[in-house]
Design goal:
The complex is a heterodimer. Chain A is an all-beta fold. Chain A has no helices and eleven strands. In chain A, strand 4 and strand 5 form a beta hairpin. Chain A is 0% helix and 59% strand. In chain B, 0% of the residues lie in helices and 56% in strands. Chain B contains no helices and twelve strands. Chain B starts with a strand and ends with a strand. The model of chain B has no long low-confidence stretch (mean pLDDT 91). Classes of the chains: A mainly beta, B mainly beta. The interface between A and B is medium-sized, with 26 and 26 residues.
Chain lengths: 111, 116
């Protein structure tokens, strides 16, 4: 069966520090991968999606970037965090019918 | 563009009460519709789905019917439990993102609290 994991689960970082959140999927090949951010009172915002290794599409211009160095690995990064980057970040993968499977989430607090 | 509108929460109900969370959508094509649930501190889990008009999705006592004429996908449960306390997201899948997959557009979520 397929599983998805992301880490770290919780992160507290100072403004201006770098960020790296990692997500891996097991039990499937060539999944479509997604990074969402959930901010309080704003629902889910799609940040990036990827349909293959090295292929990244950005939905929203921002301080963040994504990379897909391997088929089942998706990384969310920032060189310098802003206060507004705080939130709950969710990685997901999808089947062809649009159904998404989410990771456990990573809560980022920028101080 | 596509959009999903859910009733704003929070919704507070007593145990065994009837639940309805309204969801309406706008889409250019023929989307699939989903309800996801997020328990405190966790990621989202698929609760139920419907892929075409008049389909009814159901799971764990929850139901939702795909109504094309009213562009709605309201979530219902006849008797809620304390364990149903969570945030519920309505979503649609319409836009093609390549390689045979679609992107989801989510509503803002509705927080449900069930009290004993």
């Amino acid at each position: 069966s397929q599983t998805i994991h992301q880490w770290p689960a919780t992160l507290v970082q100072p403004v201006g520090s770098p960020l790296s959140l990692e997500c891996t999927v097991e039990g499937t090949s060539n999944p479509n991968l997604y990074w969402y951010r959930q901010a309080a009172g704003r629902g889910l915002q799609l940040l990036f999606y990827s349909v293959g290794i090295g292929q990244i599409s950005s939905e929203v211009p921002q301080n963040l970037s994504a990379s897909r160095p391997q088929d089942r690995q998706f990384i969310l990064s920032s060189k310098k965090l802003l206060l507004s980057d705080s939130g709950f970040y969710l990685c997901a993968w999808s089947l062809q019918n649009g159904e998404l499977f989410f990771g456990e989430g990573s809560r980022l607090t920028v101080l | 563009g596509d959009s999903v509108t859910q009733m704003e929460g929070p919704v507070t109900l007593s145990e065994e009460a009837f639940l309805t969370i309204n969801c309406t959508y706008t889409a250019t094509g023929y989307p699939s519709l989903f309800w996801y649930v997020q328990y405190p501190g966790e990621g989202l889990q698929l609760l139920l789905k419907a892929t075409k008009a008049d389909d009814k999705g159901s799971n764990k006592g929850f139901e939702a019917t795909y109504r094309k004429e009213t562009t709605s996908f309201h979530l219902e449960k006849g008797s809620v439990q304390v364990s149903d306390s969570a945030v519920y997201f309505c979503a649609l899948s319409d836009r093609y993102s390549g390689a045979g997959s679609y992107q989801l557009t989510f509503g803002k979520g509705t927080k449900l609290s069930v009290i004993p």
